[in-house]
Amino acid sequence: MLDSLSKVSKKVVSVVGARPQFIKLAPLSREFRKSGFNEVIVHTGQHYDENMSDLFFKELEIPKPDYNLGIGSGSHGEQTGKMLIALEEVLIKERPDLVIVYGDTNSTLAGALCASKLHIKLAHVEAGLRSFNKNMPEEINRIVADHLSDILFVPTQTAVENLKREGITDGVYLVGDLMFDALMHFSRTSELKSKILEILNLAPKSYYLATIHRAENTDNYERLKGILEALSRLDKLVVFPVHPRTRNKIKDYHLESLLEKLLVIDPVGYLDMIQLEKHAKIILTDSGGVQKEAFWLKVPCITLRDETEWVETIRYGWNRLVGADRDKIVEAVLNIKSGENIDFSGEYSAPKICKVLEEVV
Ligand code: UD1
Ligand code: UDP
Fold first, then answer.
1. Does the annotation mark 243 as catalytic?
2. Which residues contact 289 (CB under 8 A, 6 or more apart)?
3. What's the pTM?
4. Which atom of ligand 1 is nearest to the CA of 79?
5. Where do the structural domains in the chain lie, given as residue ranges?
6. Protein residue closest via CA to atom 26 of ligand 1
7. Whose CA is closest to atom 17 on ligand 2?
8. How far is CA 226 from the centre of its chain?
9. pLDDT tens digits in sequence order for the chain, 361 residues long
């Protein structure tokens, strides 16, 4: 009785704002509700299109956010600054026992800064990842979040070691990956509900799947052109759900003609995305989440970046770092190989996170 009372009294604020954060939140939010935590969801509004935001809450059965700050798009300073102002008000009103931030977006940075300035305990999910490239906004966001956090939920042993090198050893918990929980949980539902292959008239393994949205690719004319030229020269149809940032940049750079041979579609929901990933012959991406999903689904992946945080995907042979050079991408597709046959069955991350929080918050 006392135990359940103490759990009920724990108020946890989750700060999310971008597509991959909704996917990470889904399994943890379900576990919070099961374990009797008092969960408050704050959506910063960083992503706001229906198919970048609401669709995920619906499909993944995440409760409607308690607050939507409606911040929207903007430069880094403007977006993060507006988030800080709005978040401060919410956190002062809610007075939670803990704030949780996820991943490495500007919403992560704002949540981390705001909580620590208010002396509220802070947990970072997906802590310890490093690309060692500070030109990436994500690298700055994750370094700050890690150094401010009291509790660091780490997905891989590599991430534990990255933190150790920066002197962070207290409060570090190796708990696996919430994105793995989500993939396992929604795999069957996706199989049953998604009609995306029929709608697009795609036979399994007859196509490649591509996603691009990293600023280092989209905001650089040469890199974006190199990638799109490569995609239009491949020997199979390329299905390309286009992130809004990428759509805007293709227009700004007048690169639309390079889309003619591709199957260009709007961003899809998570259930459709799992089917597209699972049945692709190869995935080409610069997304962190998509690299991991390719690995867990055992679909060979070509990463359109010069470095990756998810080094295990490379080590086990499922991922190849190729960058943005047209010829190198085409060559990588021609020489693609499968990786080691790893057994991914294992424990889920969300129950481990809740157990730690029950003990330390
Ligand atoms: C953000 C994250 C990135 C993450 C990605 C996931 C930062 C700095 N970057 O990048 O780490 O991998 O989310 O997808 O936080 N836009 C729309 N509709 C939307 C959202 C965005 O049209 O619903 C357009 C706007 O023109 C906006 C641009 O996309 O300026 C970029 O959006 P933003 O949230 O700033 O960054 P992402 O590229 O989405
Ligand atoms: N995703 C999706 N629909 C899409 C593209 C991606 O549901 O059209 C999912 C994908 O399966 C993964 C997550 O979004 O779970 C990855 O998010 P994103 O690539 O935007 O960001 P990153 O992981 O690079 O931060």
1. no
2. 20, 23, 179
3. 0.97
4. 35
5. 2-174, 186-335
6. 245
7. 20
8. 24
9. 445 455 457 999 999 999 999 999 999 999 999 999 999 999 999 999 999 999 999 999 999 999 999 999 999 999 999 999 999 999 999 999 999 999 999 999 999 999 999 999 999 999 999 999 999 999 999 999 999 999 999 999 999 999 999 999 999 999 999 999 999 999 999 999 999 999 999 999 999 999 999 999 999 999 999 999 999 999 999 999 999 999 999 999 999 999 999 999 999 999 999 999 999 999 999 999 999 999 999 999 999 999 999 999 999 999 999 999 999 999 999 999 999 999 998 889 999 999 999 999 9
State which fold the 2-174 domain adopts: Rossmann fold (3.40.50)
Q: Given 47, 213, 243, 279, which residue is catalytic?
A: 213
Give me ligand 1 centre to Cα 47, in Å: 6
- The pair of three-digit structure tokens given for residue 129, joined into one six-digit string: 């990842």
| C-alpha 26 to ligand 2 mean position (Å) | 14
The token pair that represents 225 in the structure block? 């052109």
Q: Whose CA is closest to atom 4 on ligand 1?
A: 105
CATH no., domain 186-335:
3.40.50.2000
Note whether 224 and 305 are within 8 A (CB): no
User: The tokens 């690299």 sit on which residue?
Assistant: 291
The rounded distance, in Å, linking the Cα atoms of 87 and 310 is 30
CATH topology of 2-174 equal to that of 186-335?
yes
- CA distance readout (Å), 103 to 16, 146, 282, 306, 315: 9, 10, 25, 20, 22
